[in-house]
Amino acid sequence: MTTHDIARMERVEMYLKAVFAIQQAAGLPTVSKVAEFMGVSVPSASEMLKRLEQQGLVGSNDEGVHLTAEGRQVAIRVVRRLRLAERLLTDVLKLDLDLVYDEACKMEHVISPEVEARLDVVLGAPTHCPHGQPIPRPDGAMEPLAHRTLADVAPDRSVEVASIPEEDPALVRYLSEVGLVPGARVHVVGVAPFRGPIFFEAGGARQAVGPDVAQRVRVAPKRNATRRRDREV
Fold first, then answer.
1. Among 168, 66, 16, which residue's Cα sits nearest to residue 217?
2. For the chain, what is the radius of gyration of the CA atoms?
3. Distance CA 100, CA 203 (A)
């Protein structure tokens, strides 16, 4: 396989991963959203998606694009390698959370099936990446994302952060600074009217984030102590 072939395969995988990620976030993968995710122009994304459609990896209609069964298999394999690499970088190499996605993206295309299987064993078969996103299992199955966000939580309610976006380093850094990381316990103190900030307590400090940011933080009911101990055993 030539260097050109490898680069082309990586580009295909990146686009399929983009469509998959947008779908997982309950979004409609339009050409413009794929272009934004990839950091390219809309015409460039449109041209590439047409090629992928010709290869039978994506389909399209008036509303947007979607993965075919074959395209989803490729995307799942890429996402699994990506998130196992993220766990390696975080758990073993202790890399800061806002740095792991970009570094893992460099690794996702070169991890062989043998290394992938070994990573799974060494890391203890993790089910989620450091950002709380589910890691696809070898058979392609994966847990759904939590459907509620911090923006949905009423005042005087406590929740636990389930996941945060992984692909935006600046946002990950900001969320880490205000204590909104997977597993963090959050108590919503109040919500300002007219789409004002959401005030909350996390890690013993009072913080506030805007509604747009809060909508990107997925949350789950707060686990009790007994349940946490059971998970730790």
1. 168
2. 19
3. 23
Q: Per the structure block, which two tokens stand in for 19? A: 């469509």
Percent of the chain surpassing pLDDT 90: 85
**Cβ(35)–Cβ(42) below 8 Å:** yes
Q: What is the 3-state secondary structure (H, E, C) of the chain?
A: CCHHHHHHHHHHHHHHHHHHHHHHCCCCCCHHHHHHHHCCCHHHHHHHHHHHHHCCCEEECCCCEEECHHHHHHHHHHHHHHHHHHHHHHHHCCCCHHHHHHHHHHHCCCCCHHHHHHHHHHCCCCCECCCCCECCCCCCCCCCCCCEEHHHCCCCEEEEEEECCCCCHHHHHHHHHCCCCCCCEEEEEEECCCCCCEEEEECCEEEEECHHHHCCCEEEECCCHHHHHHHHC
pTM check: above 0.85: yes
